[in-house]
Amino acid sequence: MTRMNKSNPFSLSFGKEPVSYIARDYQSGEILESFDSDNPSYQVCMITGVRGAGKTVAMSAIANILAADSRWIIVNLNPERDLLRTLAAELSNRKELFELFRDAKINLSFLGFGLEIDGEPPITDLVVALRRMLEKLTKSGKRILITIDEVSLNRQMREFASQFQIFMREDLNIFLIMTGLYENIYELQNEKTLTFLFRAPKVELKPLSIPLIVQKYREVFNITEDEALSMAKVTMGYPFAFQVMGYLKWREGGNKPLEELLPQFDTYLEDYVYEKIWSELSKKDKEVVAAMCSAPSTKVETIRSRLKMPSNSFSTYRKRLTKKGIVRSPEYGWLSFTLPRFKEFILRQEEIQ
Ligand SMILES: Nc1ncnc2c1ncn2[C@@H]1O[C@H](COP(=O)(O)OP(=O)(O)OP(=O)(O)O)[C@@H](O)[C@H]1O
Ligand SMILES: [Mg+2]
């Protein structure tokens, strides 16, 4: 094999579409279907999931599919900046839209975007300018998709989302996908002026398909179905773990057995995500998670009695950890971790010794 000359097809970088990509047709298909239909059932949706669950990649994948259709205009916005202003600037800077705006006599020179238009008074208000542009685009059959990665509740988001809601009510062809950690999305949609977000669909990213992971590993490495399956099972479908496992297997020349890759595998997971996830848990969340590791079984009853916690407060923590994408209930009355080798990671934490 000429592996030595080729670069590693697996990648440890975040936020970038990886070379070894596993489709999530069923979750992204739903969003695409609504956005692309004549009568969209919704125009806003939010993608949540734990760190490394593939939120950024999933959002880019959807945007890329739509971008292939000239009807769609995609604008990526940075949640830390003035979103309305950046949107206006982005739209007015697109070559393919320039003529549309000129024909509609939209003079944006006052705002510092676009060219002066003779005989037209410049528009002096940002929202008015945006509305004129969006109206023109909507009339021309265009659809605008705005993507915002890693949202949280800040002044810019509040202002942008409430204006977005107004544009949507005005029947403008404007669509929005946001990604964020559960706690940030939760905070945003609970803001009193933004309750429309409460009704917007939230896509909680599910693990990648194990059979597709097996197939991918077998495409890249010369290994048996059984070996690919053991590798895939260790990843539990967690996207970052899928990359790390492949990355290490490739780096070690493809011959090292799985058990020998595990220490490195654990180190990467810990350094890149688990440390961060752990540091973001509250003290009580940590206690619940720790009890899941030390209780003799992962039955809810057993964990709860170990914590000496009443049923209703336990269910609050359980619900939150589930929403965050850290635990799940494989069957009624039982709990387990969604992240691979997370238990082993927890047991290494000094805080819980
Ligand atoms: N569908 C996929 N198939 C294969 N690998 C994926 C897929 N989605 C994400 N990954 C890999 O998982 C890792 C994390 O992806 P991404 O950056 O999208 O996560 P995220 O949820 O946005 O994380 P964060 O919360 O830290 O921003 C990356 O290494 C990426 O290559
Ligand atoms: Mg991300």
CATH C-level name of the largest domain: Alpha Beta
The largest pleated sheet is described as:
5 strands, parallel
Give the helix level as a range of percent: 40-55%
The total tally of domains equals 3
Short description:
The chain has 353 residues and is α/β, with parallel strands linked by helices. The protein contains 16 helices and 7 strands.
Description:
The chain is α/β, with parallel strands linked by helices. It folds into three domains: 180 residues, P-loop containing nucleotide triphosphate hydrolases (Rossmann fold), CATH 3.40.50.300; 70 residues, no CATH class; 71 residues, Arc Repressor Mutant, subunit A (Orthogonal Bundle). It is built from 16 helices and seven strands. The strands form two sheets. Strands 2-3-4-1-5 form a five-stranded parallel sheet, with helices on both faces. α3 packs across α5 and α11 runs antiparallel to α12. The radius of gyration is 24 Å and the shape is globular. The two termini are 47 Å apart. The model has no long low-confidence stretch (mean pLDDT 93). Bound molecules: adenosine-5'-triphosphate and magnesium ion (MG). Magnesium ion binds next to α2.
